[in-house]
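Retro notes (design track)

What went well: tokenization of the new backbones is finally stable.
What didn't: we kept losing track of which sequence belonged to which structure.
Fix going forward: every design gets posted as structure first, then sequence, in one message. First example under the new rule, 149 residues:
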């Protein structure tokens, strides 16, 4: 029974790691699109507010809400999660430059050159799952070795 539970936990961790890894690859491709094909637009900041999970507004993530109009006259409302230091530079009504993907104007960024850092920062939750996965894999291997000898 314990072996089955161990294998079930191991498989659940494998699925979580695979899902988070796929999300990281998807996010990186989205930011590469902005780097390679992105267009610059002038946006207007609508609001700067602490993120929902940011209980202490003095640190943590903030949400930057802004809107812009594409050359095809499509108005896009977008939001970005930014660090407090970045959020401190913006205020409602301010004009900012954003980069957007022409094929998908809702895909925007303030500074797409730092794509990989953004993806890694957002996927920090992957690390504990990888550590758990390695530990469970080691336990399974040790059990098989002890049965074989």
């Amino acid at each position: 029974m314990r072996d089955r539970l161990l294998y079930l936990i191991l498989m659940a961790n494998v699925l979580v790691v695979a899902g988070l890894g796929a999300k990281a690859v998807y996010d990186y491709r989205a930011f590469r699109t902005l780097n390679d094909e992105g267009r610059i637009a002038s946006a207007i900041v609508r609001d700067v507010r602490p993120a929902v999970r940011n209980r202490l507004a003095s640190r943590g993530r903030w949400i930057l809400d802004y809107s812009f109009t594409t050359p095809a006259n499509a108005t896009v409302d977008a939001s970005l999660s930014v660090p407090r230091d970045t959020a401190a530079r913006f205020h409602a009504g301010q004009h900012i430059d954003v980069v957007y993907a022409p094929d998908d104007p809702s895909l925007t960024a303030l500074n797409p050159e730092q794509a990989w850092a953004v993806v890694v920062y957002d996927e920090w939750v992957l690390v504990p799952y990888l550590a758990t996965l390695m530990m469970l894999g080691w336990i399974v291997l040790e059990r098989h070795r002890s049965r074989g000898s």
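Added context from the reviewer: The chain has one domain: 2-148.
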